[in-house]
Hints:
- By secondary structure, this protein is mainly α.
- It contains 14 helices and 4 strands.
Amino acid sequence: MSQFFNALVSKGFFGKRIRNGVHMFSLILFVVVIVCSVSNLLVPEQSIFYVSTYTITLLGKYLCFALLALSVDVVWGYCGVLSLGHGAFFALGGYGMGMYLMRQVGDRGVYGNPDLPDFMVFLDWTELPWYWFGMDQFWFAIAMAIFIPGLLAFVFGWLAFRSRVTGVYLSIMTQALTYALMLAFFRNEMGFGGNNGLTDFKEILHFDLQSNETRVGLFFLSALVLIIALLLSQKIMKSRFGRVVISIRDGESRARFLGYVTDHYKVALFVYSAVLAAFAGVLYVPQVGIINPSEFSPINSIEVVVWVAVGGRGTLYGAAVGALLVNYAKTKFTAVLPDGWLFALGALFVGVTLYLPNGIVGFFEQRISFLKGDSSRELDSFEVKDKKSVSEVEV
Length: 395
């Protein structure tokens, strides 16, 4: 096996690591999604090749988490901004979609009220809050589900980066942000369902959410959005903007000395990452059937950081790989020992930090580089090909 692997490397099979890594992952993902979709819709249930609707939904959820991990990798791996609050943008996007889905229930709810969601009827509300108006329109709801997290990221990022808050202080502030939102959304008077959140969804765009076809469609859409986000993020990081961002990560004071307004670059990247997280939340809710304040929990945001670290930060597709692997492990582990997952997650993070500091993807890239005899430069898992130093970036 080792000789076979060496032969592949020597023939250039793994040649252009960063340029092809995202493309190869995207191609593999696309093929797997097509195969799983066909196996669910066309293969008889009695066949060993049949993929159940439960599995399709579970994989769709994993893909949403992969998109969320990508959003964190964009700011952490390439700009050095460790956010522990991206779960807030994910949850806000999810609530936006949840509001639309609740408006589609109409008179099919428990109380049969065509104008008010069940939880509002239960709380004796007589009319919709102003911020619920328009949420029965799909495109308006999607726009708000993306705009609100983006606006929050812009305001927070502008205030934080203009004040030059960095390092652990910024991480704590992002964690405080998501915790404050969690406490707010737990309150019934906020109008978002309180502790129970939003659930009992019926349909999306007149498609039954419980049907196999709808589940497969959402699964395919999640994969498509993830692939587009990967390719777009790669293009951004290879652009002049991306080189400046990497220069800020490696030496913000030098970038500022050369005349770059580093705050603007960091805010723009932070907003972009928040939009990706919001998209993940939008795709997540119709597949799992519920959104509640627990999605704001700071532990969720910390878990995302672990996914990125396991996969390999600064590689884009490594974040997606980490999210898929860790969540698959979580599904299997919690089925046997549900109370022990957080301990296992902590042990995993410590192990990766000590023995795989560049993550799984970074480890294999280093191995490939070593076998190719590329000793001209050290392989850093969160560098991009043809990276320019801060002094080489054109002003």
